């Protein structure tokens, strides 16, 4: 009798350990911030269906995700400083977890690789806010050299943050380990918007809606290595996760410009629709998702197959979509 019980127990254990267990990455989601409707559209990328429409504070601008898959973060650009928030939502339930008062007009937010700190660019001022996770408390305010910080990026080693300053036309370089801030100059007339970085951290890229250019920055040398003309009003610029390309939504061109960052040339212009603004990639880089903020009566998202550079489809979201992020994907800020 005892042998039968032991055998039965062994069989049950064998079944349990041979059944595949869902990994965190099995939950796939797109998050689209709709600034005109105060909401985030949560999308299932498998069939592009709407999972939820999550209400937010007034004027949500940007969204990013926790690298561990626990939370998604939304910046709120309300007019009163007490309402300038980073809102935290639970990935599994879409419920609001916390609202953290940041600096004036928080524009973008990025997590460190460990998921322990959030860095927030406060476009209405001259600071970055540092927020602890999961306590969700501001633990430091970094004073920048430059005005109007916007689409910041973190180096792969987590040592540096680079922040474009829209109102002063330059880039702040923050040494996170030693709490030092340098300033990198851009060409006269620059109005930098957002930044991307190569996987090895050697070069950063910043879009410039003042000169309609993309600037290549030597991170170690703190210099502009090259500049390239692109479409009118280039916005976000995360580097493709596996290939040496950036796809840049250019708002007033109605197109995405594909740049070969090794050859340093425009290799394709892809018409996508009205007001392309935000971009994020699937984890494998096969698809790029681009928000179309100017589409009416509601905004849309275009899906580019990066193997063919063809627009596979577009799908509706809500009013004036700007920021977009992919859970376990490649997003603006990294």
Polypeptide structure, described:
- This protein is 5% helix and 49% strand.
- It has one helix spanning 2-18, and strands at residues 30-34, 39-44, 49-55, 60-65, 71-77, 84-90, 96-101, 106-111, 117-122, 127-132, 137-143, 153-154, 160-165, 170-175, 180-185, 192-197, 203-208, 213-218, 223-229, 245-250, 255-260, 265-271, 276-281, 287-292, 300-305, 310-316, 321-326.
- Strands 3-2-1-27 form a 4-stranded antiparallel sheet, with no helix packed on it. It has a 4-stranded antiparallel sheet with strand order 4-5-6-7, with no helix packed on it. Strands 8-9-10-11 form a 4-stranded antiparallel sheet, with no helix packed on it.
- The longest helix is centred in the N-terminal third of the chain and has 17 residues, at 2-18.
- The chain starts with a helix and ends in an 8-residue tail after the last strand.
- 48% of the residues are buried.
